[in-house]
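Customer escalation, tier 2.

The customer says the design service returned an amino acid string that "doesn't look like it belongs to this structure." They asked us to rerun it and document both sides in this ticket. The original structure tokens are below, unchanged.
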């Protein structure tokens, strides 16, 4: 199941070009649209969201339905050619790992000086066209979020790329503050790689709340976001 959001951003680097076969659908897809699973020494299928664990891997399309189907249909046993154990809540485990990876990525972006935080800084970034991706707390007040979204829409004629799947507390921990309601990424390369991970997470949770207006949901994500070119808040449409 795909969840809507404002805009997909392309996957950069080698993962965009490499393809693997999903053990459920048997489709060959870019790695950035899949989750790798490794087999532990005691025969447990283990999510490897960074695709770095040693040994043979099994790849599953990055969405909850595919991970659950892999469990239900015994796809891991066939892929590893042996008896495999897997937790019943494997899809929830994948979601948690992807969310942690996304939040850790925000921390790296902050340390690189590539994040604006707070309504004033984000508004300035939108006005200057330097905001590449808007990040809103899912539990933030509607009026503050609406002001920023309308500012971007008024200046550029469309809603900005936006994510709102983390709480203010979660964003605060990631960004070194108590709470963060409004933030945005300022560097295109980091925004592209970060939203590739967010797009995988979109297969497991809604990336924007259902309460958001339909006018802010102009483009569906697509798992992995690998089929679209990068957009920024300041890029004008043709």
């Amino acid at each position: 199941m795909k969840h809507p959001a404002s805009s997909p951003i392309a996957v950069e680097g080698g993962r965009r070009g490499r393809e693997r076969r999903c053990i459920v659908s048997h489709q060959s897809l870019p790695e950035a649209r899949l989750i790798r699973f490794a087999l532990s020494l005691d025969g447990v299928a283990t999510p490897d969201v960074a695709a770095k664990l040693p040994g043979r891997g099994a790849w599953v399309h990055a969405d909850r339905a595919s991970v659950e189907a892999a469990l239900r249909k015994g796809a891991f046993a066939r892929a590893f050619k042996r008896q495999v154990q897997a937790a019943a809540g494997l899809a929830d485990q994948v979601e948690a790992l992807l969310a942690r990876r996304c939040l850790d990525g925000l921390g790296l972006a902050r340390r690189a000086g590539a994040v604006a935080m707070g309504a004033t800084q984000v508004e300035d970034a939108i006005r200057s066209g330097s905001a590449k991706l808007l990040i809103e707390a899912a539990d933030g007040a509607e009026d503050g979020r609406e002001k920023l979204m309308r500012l971007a829409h008024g200046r550029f004629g469309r809603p900005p790329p936006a994510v709102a799947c983390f709480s203010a507390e979660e964003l605060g921990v990631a960004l070194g503050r108590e709470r963060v309601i409004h933030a945005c990424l300022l560097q295109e390369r980091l925004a592209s790689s970060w939203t590739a991970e967010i797009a995988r997470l979109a297969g497991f949770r809604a990336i924007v709340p259902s309460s958001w207006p339909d006018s802010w949901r102009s483009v569906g994500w697509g798992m992995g976001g690998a089929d679209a070119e990068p957009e920024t808040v300041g890029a004008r449409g043709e």
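Tier 2 assessment: The sequence is consistent with the input. The two ends are 31 Å apart (CA to CA). Residues 1-14, 218-238 have pLDDT under 50 and may be disordered. Sent an explanation to the customer and offered a walkthrough call.
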